[in-house]
Amino acid sequence: MEWELILPEREVPKGWDRAQFLDAVKEQLIKDFEWDAERVAAASISLLQLLEDHISWNLERNATTLFTSFYKLDLGEQLVRNILQDGNREGAPKRLAEKSLQRAALKVWTRWNYQST
Known about the structure:
Blueprint: H1 3-6, H2 18-33, H3 37-42, H4 47-61, H5 63-73, H6 77-85, H7 92-115
């Protein structure tokens, strides 16, 4: 996973490495999207692709659950609305997946930075 995609202009908090950080981001997404951790671990696709597929499927079938996950992730209602209403409906799941990944990473980064101070 490209570091620049998930946390541009930020470094891993001191005392942590990128692998640990990415594992914590995955755990955050599992928690906020209420995924089965074993299924995520067994997935043969990237975390970003897993997010994109999950978002795409739920936009068509169960948007309420998806928006609950966005709320838990603190993605921001206006951001989600803007992405969904920008006229590029086909690209919306990918953009929402990227933003979800970035938000999960920022939550972990913030928590780790406050733990290390």
